[in-house]
């Protein structure tokens, strides 16, 4: 019974911390423990959990924190860091726009972290994911390097799914 509870907690924790490539839709609050204790509509079976009630409190706390944050620890590639003293913000904005023109598939962010302005690009979950983009970027921005940062879900662009065009058998095998 304890092993089932541990597996259930690991599964729920994995689902709440899992990251997806798209912005998740707002889902109504779900009380997992309440759903488990209700009878199944098909078999009539139900799960009875015997355990410390603090586990349920911990799960609810975990869900509420994740719901409020809407962010995750990720990586971006820093291409520029300059002191805010005597710096023209328009120059930095044009620098950001120029980068986005050179690399249209990578988004650039201008951030102010007292006392510096930083231009960071991309949205990556792990440092390893930055490597292909970093190789491309270093050809034009030699001092670029990956940095750990908080990435907010609202900053991510939604992934647009493309329609596929079905091919006829003649198009697949023109020699027939």
From TrEMBL:
The keyword Signal applies. Residues 73-147 form the SPOR domain. Keywords: Signal. InterPro entries: SPOR-like_dom. It comes from the Bacteria. Residues 1-18 form the signal peptide. This is SPOR domain-containing protein. It comes from Butyricimonas hominis.
């Amino acid at each position: 019974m304890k092993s089932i509870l541990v597996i259930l907690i690991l599964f729920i924790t994995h689902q709440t911390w899992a990251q997806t490539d798209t912005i998740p839709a707002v889902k109504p609050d779900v009380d997992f423990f309440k759903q488990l204790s209700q009878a199944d509509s098909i078999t009539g079976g139900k799960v009875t959990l015997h355990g410390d009630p603090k586990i349920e409190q911990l799960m609810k706390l975990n869900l509420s924190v994740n719901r409020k944050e809407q962010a995750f620890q990720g990586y971006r590639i820093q291409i520029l860091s300059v002191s805010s003293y005597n710096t023209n913000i328009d120059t930095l904005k044009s620098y950001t726009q120029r980068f986005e023109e050179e690399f249209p598939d990578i988004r650039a962010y201008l951030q102010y972290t007292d006392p510096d302005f930083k231009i960071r690009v991309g949205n990556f979950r792990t440092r390893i994911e930055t490597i292909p983009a970093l190789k491309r970027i270093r050809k034009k921005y030699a001092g670029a390097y990956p940095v750990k940062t908080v990435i907010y879900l609202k900053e991510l662009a939604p992934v647009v799914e493309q329609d596929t065009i079905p091919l006829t058998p003649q198009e697949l095998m023109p020699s027939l």
